[in-house]
Amino acid sequence: MKDLSVLVIDQGMIVDRIDYNIQNVATIVEDGLKQLQEKPEKGGMVMCATVLLIMCLVMLVLLILKEIIL
């Protein structure tokens, strides 16, 4: 009977650890969500537009070089 009580206690400790980890993960996810919401979206759009413009210029230069070489 002692073995069964030890197993029940061990199982209870495991369940407590799982509950503790779930609470920690929930807190971490909430903090991450707050950080994402605080991040300004304008900076990302400017970076995307800049990269797109640079890619277009590179393609234009390549097309011009292709016409000159051929």
UniProtKB/TrEMBL annotation:
Domain T-SNARE coiled-coil homology stretches: 1-39
Designated name of the protein: t-SNARE coiled-coil homology domain-containing protein
Organism name: Arachis hypogaea (Peanut)
Keywords attached to this entry: Membrane, Protein transport, Transmembrane, Transmembrane helix, Transport
Gene3D superfamilies associated with the record: 1.20.5.110
Domain of life: Eukaryota
Ranges annotated as spanning the membrane: 44-65
GO BP, sorted A to Z: protein transport
Chain coiled-coil ranges: none
